[in-house]
Amino acid sequence: MASATNTSAAEVNYVYNPAFNYTKPMSLVTTLFFMWAVAVNINDILIPHLKKACDLTDFQSSFIPFVFFAGYFLMARPAGMIIKKLGYRKGLTTGLFICAIGAFMFYPAAQARSFPMFLAAIFVMACGNSTLEVGAYPLAASLGNPLKASARLNFASAFNALGAVLTSLIARTFILSGVQKTADEIKTMSAEQLEAYRLFEASTVKSPYIFLGFIFVFIAALIYFSHIPEIKEQEEENTVDAKQSNNGSSFFKHPNLYLGVLGIFFYVGAQVGVASFIFRYAEYQMPGIDEKKAALYITYHLVAFMIGRFVGTGLQQKIKPSTLLAFFAIADLLLVTVAIFLQGEIAVWSVIIIGFFHSIMFPTIFALALNKLGTYTKDGSSYLVMAIVGGAIMPLAMGFLSDKTSIQTAFIVPAICYLYIFFYAVKGCRVVKA
Fold first, then answer.
1. Distance of CA 205 to CAs 53, 146, 201, 365, Å?
2. How far is the C-alpha of 202 from the C-alpha of 186, rounded, in Å?
C-alpha cells in the first residue's frame, strides 16, 4: 500500500557540500535566466516587425511563436540527453552556442528578407533556449542548501522577469523603425521603392541580433572556464527504478512529475495566452483607445510579473512553496473571473495584475515536479521543458474562442488552467513512495 507525503519542493535529492561556496556558480547560472528571457520576449516585437518587413498576414506572423515553442518541445528530450552525457557545465555551454548560432542566422535572413530563414533562426534559438532551461533549472535548485532550492529558483527567475521587461523596452528602440506606411501610401509606391522600404525594415534586426549572438558566446566562455560543480544526484533507494529511468518507464512512477508536466503545460499556456491578448482585450474594453496606450498595458503586465518574482522569493522564505502556489492560483482565478464578467478599465487592470500572480508559478511547479526524483532528475527536467509547448496551444484556443464569441469570453481558457494549477498545488505535487 502506497503512502503519500506532502513535502517541500526544496527537498531535492542530491549531494550537498556545505563547505563549498556556491555564490559564484549560482550567479553565472542566474545570468542564463536573464538571457533566455531576451530570446523569448523579443518575439513579441518580431511579430509586428516581420509582419511589416515581410508583408505577412496575421496567420503567417503567428508562426513566429508557434515555431519558437515547437523548437522548445522538439529539443527538450535531446537537450536532456546532452546534459546527461556532457554534464551541466559543458551542456549549458552547448546551449549558449546554439543560441548564438540562431542569433547570427538573423543577418542572412535580413539580407534575403526571407521569412522562412527568419523562422529557421527563431527555431535554432528556441533549441538553444530549451537546452539552457533543461540544465539551468535543476542546476540552480542544486547549487546550495536543499531546503532553499525553491527560493533559489524564484530568485533566479526574478532576473528572467527583469530580462522580459528590459527586452520589451530595448527591442522597441533598436528594432522598430517607427516608420509605418499606410495601405494607401504603399499603393502609391513603385516596386523598387516598396522593396527598398521592406529591406530597410528587415535590416534593423541585424545589429541587435549580432550583438546578442556575441553576448551568448561571451557567457558561454565564462561558464566553460568557470568552476561549476558537477552536481551528483543521490542514488534512488529502488535500484530497479533507477535503471528504468534510462528508458523513461520511471516517468509514471512519479505522480508529482507527470502531473507537474501538465502543470507546466497549463501554466505556460495561460501565461502566453494572457500576455498575447492584453492588447486586444484593452481595445475591446476601451473602444477607441490609442494603440500606444494599449501596448503600454503589456509593459505594465510584465512589470507586475517582475515585482511578483521578487516578492514571491521573499514569501517562500516563510511559506511552503505548494501553499503559496495554491494561493497565487486562486488569486489569478479571481482576477480572470473579473476579466470575464466585468467591463471597462477595471477589467483591463485585473488582467495586468494577473502577471503578479503568474510570477512564481513556473519555477515552483518545476521544483515541486523534480522533488525526490534522484537519478531521474535530468530526465524529468527535459519532460517539464517539453511541456512549454502549452504556450503554442492555449493561445490558439483563446483565438478560436475570440473569433467565435469575444476576446472576453476567451479568458475562460486561462481560468481552466488556474483551476488545474490549484489542484496540483493542493494534491498533485505530493511525493508518493511505495
1. 11, 42, 8, 35
2. 16
Q: Which of 302, 313, 428 is nearest to 371 (CA)?
A: 428
How many folded domains does the chain comprise? 1
Instruction: Give the three-class secondary structure for 1.
Output: coil
- Three-class DSSP category at 2: coil
432 phi, psi to nearest 5 deg = -105, 125
SS3 for 5?
A: strand
What is the domain-level CATH number for residue 320? 1.20.1250.20
Quick check: helix, strand or coil at residue 371? coil
SS3 434: coil
Grid cell locating 95: 546551449
CA distances from 168 to 104, 132, 139, 164, 231 (A): 20, 21, 28, 6, 35
Domain that holds residue 116: 3-433
**Consecutive H or E run containing 10:** none
Whole-model pTM? 0.73
Cα 134 to Cα 295: distance, rounded to the nearest angstrom? 32
Per-block average pLDDT, block size 10, for the chain (434 residues)? 33 54 84 89 79 79 82 86 89 96 97 95 94 86 77 78 83 75 80 88 92 96 84 50 52 83 94 83 84 76 88 86 95 97 94 94 89 75 83 83 87 96 92 63
